[in-house]
Amino acid sequence: MCCIIKTSWQRFKLHNAARNGSYVFLYNHTLHTSAAQNLAIFLLASALMSFPADFSLAIDALIHPDGTMYSSCIVATGTQLLLSIIFVIISGWFIYQYMGRLVDLIPNPATWAAMIPIPVIFTLINIEIRPHYYSTLYTNRIFEIYIFILIICLMLMIIFYASFYLIAMDMVKNSQERERMRLLEMQQLQYQKQQEYIRENSRLRHDFRQSIAVIRNLVQTSNYDALNDYIKDYTDNIPHNDTTSYCNNICINALLNYYSDVMSRNNIERSWKIELPDNLSITDTELCGMLGNLLENVCSACTTVTDGPRYHNMSVCIMHGDELYIVSTNNFDGRTNFHDGSYHSTKPGAFAASQCGIGLASIRTTAQKYGGIARFHNTANEFFTDIMFKI
Asked: Could you tell me if 43 and 116 are in contact, meaning their C-beta atoms sit under 8 angstroms apart?
């Protein structure tokens, strides 16, 4: 009889494992987030639901001191169901409010993969402390210790995830501050260029009467060779405004001018078509972050080209009335690090090589936030980025 029970229990566990595996597979394929994010949230939910199961065993042990964990009564089952509903309502609200923000703000799968062992550990602890025979709980103070361990584990898990949320949000806030500082530096650089252009124009206007006097004198003396040289020197010294007005958005214009200068210094030919409306639903910070990540990757990729010209073509325009399209094409050396459905960093170093392309993941997350998509693909020596979202 013991062998039959043991064999049946093993089959039951195998059946549960196969069923849970199918649940994870379906759950992962119904979401647009990464597999690491999906698995981390799924395991967190599993760990939380293991607590009502263990508390219900304590209720069953009070009612049936001589029973086993395999013979739960209707009261214990109802208690587990009630506790599970309470856990779902309370934890579900917190996960939606807070963990949902982290899923949007931290798209890097490596961060979520590091979180996977935590709910696994708590789940295994809850499984291992379950009494197979309730009589064990009535030995000395085992019952009180069992309840104490459950409460402590639940509190530790809450504290751990609360700490993770606070640390992660602080990191996100610092990252956003760095992004804003970078944008301010770009705007300051554009402002300095404009100020230099204004000062040079003021100087030329101040000297204009003297220049007219010199030209009049050269004409009167018929010294045309000197006149020609003077006019040529004068035109060569007329200041050139290096700031291009790509659009009316000051932040985006500063960003584009900054990367335009970077590409000029790296001999990257540009062909940009920018058509941005004045009113957008996306914030300036998010749009600058998206374009900044895109252009930073473009600059890094183009500089890998050693033979032949470097180029970048980009179109930013509105189509269908309320959809913003960003289409980008740049050349590169053909070396990519693509696996598990994602592009990973090709920067030197084992750590960098193991990281998913954070800039690309951030672009995709922002696009999805506004009901859009972001797609990346490449040929032998060209990389393509297609972004679309609602404005």
From this structure: yes
Q: Which two tokens stand for residue 63?
A: 């009612």
What 3-state DSSP class applies to 201?
helix
CB 112 within 8 A of CB 34: yes
Q: How many residues comprise the chain?
A: 391
Secondary structure of 203-258 as H, E, C letters: HHHHCHHHHHHHHHHHHHCCCHHHHHHHHHHHHHCCCCCCCCCCCCCHHHHHHHHH
Report the pLDDT value the prediction gives residue 355, as an integer from 0 to 100.
46
Residue with tokens 């050139």: 240
Of 139, 181, 150, nearest in space to 59 by CA: 150
317 φ/ψ angles, rounded to the nearest 5 degrees: -150, 165
Would you say 316 and 270 are in contact if contact means Cβ atoms under 8 Å apart? no
Give CA separation, 338 vs 177, 287, 341, 361, in Å: 30, 26, 7, 13
pTM of the model: 0.58
Between helices 2-29 and 35-63, what is the axis angle to 10°? 140
Distance CA 57, CA 68 (A): 9
Distance between CA atoms of 324 and 316, rounded to whole angstroms? Answer: 7
d(CA 273, CA 291) in angstroms, rounded, equals: 14
pLDDT number for residue 320: 85
Mean pLDDT per 10-residue segment, the chain (391 residues): 42 50 65 80 90 91 87 84 90 81 77 90 93 89 93 94 89 78 69 64 67 78 80 69 78 86 92 89 86 91 92 93 93 83 63 54 85 91 94 81
Token pair 């193991």 in the structure block, residue: 354
373, 367 Cβ separation under 8 angstroms: yes
| Helices vs. strands in the chain: H and E counts, helices first | 13, 7
